[in-house]
């Protein structure tokens, strides 16, 4: 299809909780500047996969390569400095810090420091830009704890952008939002992607996922059961089975 | 905005310095000064502990060992080698930092109750070491120590005015130091780790590094205070590792204001004075303190300093 080198490659990645495989022998790759969607029924292992890639816990076996470097054995915070950033399903925030300071954490610690430190002025610019981008400029002095769900999600995206990521991993960015809010976030994701930032997206809301993604992977019981363009995946028999159960997938006899 | 904040701090700093500087001129009572000096010293130790447990959420119990390590370092240097306590002060800070590395390297990798236990054990290990090396530490009876002195004038419990100003200078240094740290990148990393470690790490914060740095920073002045305290009292015994210090420092932070700049000093003053005033009640004193602590935790989780904050805000809105 294309000769581009993938930005992220996962090879035979497995993660067990006790004897249960949350993610099992999973292979996939993500190409630069694409939006790669991950979906699947509850408990399919999507968030676990995110956690394994982003190092909340290491994989039990398998390898993860990001931007030409094996990251599955790197120290915790290091991989984020390589240009990978993520958001969390339940909005994470530094609740006692202001909106501005929340994003400042990303701007201060998210980029690798080659020799000289990022200057204070530069950081202020990065933070200002990220807040403007998501539309939180007028709330910069608000303590994060006081934010509503939508703003929390936006703040989390802003602090991720302040780390200047090459790859942004979004865990259910649209879940729980009202229709107009969801439209705003979907728009935002398109804008981020148009700046050549690669996006991996977990989303339950199929409409959002299918309209955004270039390619989609469907997971079930920790395994990949389907992968392809949204249109291909939507017609895949295995996907319909996974979502609706086998009863509904049997072809109707004429 | 940041210059306004800096000016505000300068204003508060000078206000506190001025208010505390006139205390000996207003009240000439030696006993009163003694209590105030003790309060100031405890305030410094508590403020620096607060840097780790209040700002950083690193709930460790090694602050009293840091305090004691400083005291013993200076005491041993003075008694065994005749080294002046002025140099002893710096050596005390150094000793506390060394101890913080020894305790911090293994224990800062863990969190919560494990951190509490690991750091708490340092207290018992130190106690045993002091008794084991009784030939240099003086064992149970302890050591009698020389005072600080300038131009043949002693600065100790018999000259509380000089001691008071010396302690005040150290407090002001400590205040500026803590302000500087909490406003720096270290402070930002600390607060982010306290609020959510997983999230902070996902934004590139190295948790171990910043916890270690804070541990080191908050131990230094505790050690210096240990030396200041024992040379002031002219004696050191294993009682510097007593439970009562741990309770006093922790209670100062809780009473005054967890994770606030001025709270620990306020708490230390209130508790040292209250504990003198209630001395006649002996054991009931602890019952009263315990109850007070619970009431404060429930109704003023950020400590009594929040009352001062509210009064100040009310005053400002009235004058406007």
Describe this structure in words.
- The complex is a heterodimer of chains A (254) and B (320).
- Chain A has 254 residues and is an alpha/beta fold.
- Chain A is built from 10 helices and 10 strands.
- Chain A has helices at residues 46-53, 78-81, 99-109, 120-134, 149-161, 179-194, 206-212, 230-234, 237-244, 246-249; strands at 8-17, 20-30, 35-39, 61-66, 69-70, 84-86, 167-171, 198-202, 215-220, 223-228.
- In chain A, strands 6-7-8-3-9-10 form a 6-stranded mixed sheet, with helices on both faces.
- Chain B is mostly helical.
- Chain B has 15 helices and 4 strands.
- Chain B has helices at residues 2-21, 23-26, 30-55, 63-81, 85-107, 112-132, 134-137, 160-183, 185-195, 197-202, 207-233, 243-256, 263-277, 284-299, 305-319, and strands at residues 143-144, 148-150, 153-155, 235-236.
- In chain B, the strands form 2 sheets. Chain B has a two-stranded antiparallel ribbon. In chain B, strands 2-3 form a two-stranded antiparallel ribbon.
- In chain B, strand 2 and strand 3 (153-155) form a beta hairpin.
- The longest helix of chain B has 27 residues, at 207-233.
- Chain B starts with a helix and ends with a helix.
- The model of chain B has no long low-confidence stretch (mean pLDDT 91).
- Classes of the chains: A alpha/beta (254), B mainly alpha (320).
- Chains A and B meet through helix 3 of A and helix 9 and helix 10 of B.
């Amino acid at each position: 299809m294309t000769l581009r080198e993938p930005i992220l490659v996962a090879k035979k990645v497995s993660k067990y909780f006790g004897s249960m495989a949350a993610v099992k022998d999973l292979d996939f790759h993500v190409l630069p500047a694409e939006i790669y969607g991950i979906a699947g029924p509850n408990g399919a292992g999507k968030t676990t996969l995110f956690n394994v890639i982003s190092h909340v816990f290491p994989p039990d076996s398998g390898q993860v390569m990001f931007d030409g470097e094996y990251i599955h054995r790197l120290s915790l915070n290091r991989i984020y400095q390589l240009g990978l950033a993520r958001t969390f399903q339940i909005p994470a925030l530094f609740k006692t810090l202001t909106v501005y300071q929340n994003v400042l954490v990303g701007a201060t610690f998210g980029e690798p420091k080659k020799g000289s430190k990022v200057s204070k002025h530069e950081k202020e610019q990065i933070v200002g830009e990220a807040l403007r981008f998501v539309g939180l400029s007028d709330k910069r002095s608000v303590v994060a704890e006081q934010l509503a769900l939508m703003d929390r999600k936006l703040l989390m995206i802003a602090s991720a952008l302040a780390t200047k990521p090459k790859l942004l991993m979004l865990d259910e960015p649209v879940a729980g939002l009202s229709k107009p809010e969801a439209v705003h976030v979907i728009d935002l994701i398109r804008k981020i992607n148009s700046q050549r930032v690669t996006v991996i997206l977990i989303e339950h809301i199929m409409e959002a996922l299918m309209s955004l993604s270039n390619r989609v992977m469907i997971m079930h019981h920790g395994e990949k059961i389907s992968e392809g363009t949204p249109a291909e995946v939507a017609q895949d028999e295995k996907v319909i089975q996974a979502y609706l159960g086998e009863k509904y997938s049997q072809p109707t006899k004429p | 905005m940041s210059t306004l904040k800096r000016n505000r701090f300068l204003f508060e700093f000078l206000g506190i310095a001025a208010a505390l500087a006139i205390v000996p001129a207003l009240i000439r009572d030696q006993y009163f000064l003694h209590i105030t000096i003790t309060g100031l010293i405890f305030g410094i130790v508590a403020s620096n502990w607060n840097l780790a447990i209040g700002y950083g959420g690193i709930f460790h119990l090694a602050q009293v060992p840091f305090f004691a390590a400083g005291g013993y370092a200076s005491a041993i240097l003075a008694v065994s080698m005749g080294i002046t306590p002025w140099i002893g002060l710096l050596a005390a800070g150094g000793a506390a930092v060394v101890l913080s590395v020894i305790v911090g390297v293994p224990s800062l990798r863990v969190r919560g109750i494990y951190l509490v236990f690991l750091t708490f054990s340092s207290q018992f290990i130190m106690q045993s070491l002091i008794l084991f090396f009784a030939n240099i530490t003086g064992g149970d009876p302890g050591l009698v120590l020389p005072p600080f002195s300038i131009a043949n004038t002693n600065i100790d419990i018999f000259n509380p005015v000089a001691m008071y100003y010396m302690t005040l200078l150290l407090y002001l240094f400590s205040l500026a130091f803590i302000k500087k740290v909490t406003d720096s990148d270290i402070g930002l990393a600390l607060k982010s780790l306290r609020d959510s470690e997983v999230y902070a790490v996902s934004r590139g914060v190295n948790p171990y590094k910043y916890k270690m740095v804070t541990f080191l920073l908050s131990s230094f002045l505790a050690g210096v205070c240990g030396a200041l305290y024992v040379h002031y009292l002219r004696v050191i015994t294993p009682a510097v590792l007593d439970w009562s210090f741990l309770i006093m420092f922790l209670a100062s932070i809780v009473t005054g204001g967890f994770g606030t700049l001025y709270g620990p000093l306020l708490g230390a003053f209130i508790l040292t004075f209250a504990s003198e005033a209630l001395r006649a009640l002996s054991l009931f004193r602890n019952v009263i303190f315990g109850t007070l602590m619970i009431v404060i935790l429930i109704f003023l989780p950020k400590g009594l300093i929040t009352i001062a904050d509210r009064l100040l805000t009310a005053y400002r809105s009235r004058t406007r």
